[in-house]
Structures are given as C-alpha cells and as structure tokens.
Amino acid sequence: MDQLALKINKKEIAIVAIILIGIAFLIIRANSFSIALRRAGLNPNYVRTIEHDFGTNDEEFKVIETSSKDSKITLAIVTKNKLGFWKVSSFRGDDRVDPHFTSIAWVKGGGFKRFSPTGGTVIEHEWHYAYCGDNAIKEIEFLPGQIPENVTVNIQQGDSKFLVHVISFAEPEVLNGFDVKALLEENKCIPIDTE
Question: Which stretch of 125-134, 142-151, 168-177 has the lowest confidence by average pLDDT?
C-alpha cells in the first residue's frame, strides 16, 4: 500500500512540476518584451512604438523609442523569435557629439516589380531611417525640394520632442545626401550644433 501511495505521489509531483514549468514558460514569454529591454539596459516603462511589422524572413519586429541609464533618447530594434521571445537586436542612444539627437535604420522587403526592361524580376526594398530628438525650437518642417523623389517623411512632434521617420523606396544612395540633422539646423527647427 505504501509503494502504491509513493508511485502516485511521484506521478502527482511530476504533473504538478510540468504544470508549474508550463505556467512559468507562459509568464516569461508574455513578459519577454520587457525582460529583453531590461536585459539590454533599456527602460521598459517608457516605450513608444515607431514601427511594428514583419521583416522579410517573417520575423516580427518593433522599432521603438525608449531611454536608458546612459541616454534619455534611445532608439531600438526588437525582434521576436519563433518561440515568441523578444530580443533587442540593436539600439542607439544619445550620440556623444549631440545628446539631443539620435537615429537608427532598418530595411524591409518592399515586394516584387513584375515588369522590368531586362526581363528579370526586380525585388524592391524599403529603406527606413528614424531620427529622434528633444531640442526642437519650432515646428519641424522641410522646405520644397529638400526631400528627394521616392522618399516619404512622417513627422511626429510634441513641444521640443520630435521623431522624423524617413522611408525610401529607391536605392539607398538616394538618401546619402539627405542629412536630416543638417536640414533641421538649416531650417532653424533645431539649434545649430557648434561642436
């Protein structure tokens, strides 16, 4: 009788252990975004999502604005793996040269062009750049002719804090001469960096 009770107790313990491990797995998975930010030294209590989408390899990702101990403005790319756990892929904090301005870039597949002069399929990409700052002295704006062709600009601003999200559907070289910080200084939207 005691051996039977011992076998039942081992089975019950194993079942309870499996259930507890399953619950712990689900709790960690549900909180993995905050855990990933904390592990990277970023602030999980302040997160503003710039983009939430799926990459070319069907991997879910978020581009976020947050902060850290070292910088009050941090942009990060956070990706989700096949098991549903988030990981900080890359981040940029306050630039040592300008603590009021930072940027980050990423690429997404833009689809296929069905027709091309050469007869082959052309794969297009979206080139994304996010610029974030906290030193705007007036409304962020670009003058006519300053934005290249095939480039979209989305501006979000609240008082001195701003985000400029630039998307190019052309080749990345188009944006080589598109210096957002220099244009914002030229347009007197942010103070001129004298360093």
Answer: 168-177
